[in-house]
Amino acid sequence: MGTRRDRLRAATVKEISETARRILVEEGPEAVSLRAIARAMGMTAPALYRYFDSHSELLRHLVGDIFTELTEELHGAMHAVEGTDMSGKFLAVARQFRLWALAHPREYALLFGTPVRGATRQEEVDFAEECAREFGWTFMALFLELWQKSPFPIPADEEIAPALRPQLRRYRDDVLGLDLPLGVLQQFLKCWIRLQGGVSLEVFGHLEFALDDAAPMFELMLSEVGPTLGLTYTPPR
């Protein structure tokens, strides 16, 4: 439980983060200043420095909180699929990712737009990065479960572009620490680039030149990606 002082501090940090997010949503990222947050909370701007050393550190904390929310949304969608239906789980997580992004465009832009840099306390850097890793692992764990239960076709190492091989090897050994064929990681990144790239184009309005409703194009992408992983595509209800 911690001491009363610890609980009061945690409650204040939570309120600061919620206030920053409300300003982000209502007014945009440029409006999320320490002065604006303090004014909304009835505090002085210098008082906020007892909780965060800088504006960028506050934003990194907010990034961590939002990543945590998104991760919980994806896990909820995954667990709503009964049994061992891997096709259903993959589709549910992909669709929930898109729905969350469209419902929270400014939060999405904060997470997947320009990186927030400049945190001065290592614990804030670690908090944001750990939350981002938890989000990323949601997709990676699902992908690895697919591979372990029913391995899908992948290229042999020597068939992968020479410029990609050392990068995939570094990602496998230094980041993931997993014993996997490089082709599995290449396939994972190909799928992630299509999924996240398509969602980003839609969220940021870059498909409006051609599409009023990008949902059918998103479903077309899922119908093409699924079979490459040995999954069965089913349209949304």
From TrEMBL:
Location of the HTH tetR-type domain: 10-70
Keyword Cell cycle part of the UniProt annotation: no
Sorted UniProt keywords: DNA-binding, Transcription, Transcription regulation
Keyword Chaperone tagged: no
One protein family per Pfam: TetR_N
InterPro entries linked: Homeodomain-like_sf, HTH-type_TetR-like_transc_reg, HTH_TetR, MT1864/Rv1816-like_C, Tet_transcr_reg_TetR-rel_C_sf
DNA-binding region of this protein: 33-52
This protein's name: TetR/AcrR family transcriptional regulator
Natural source organism: Actinomadura graeca
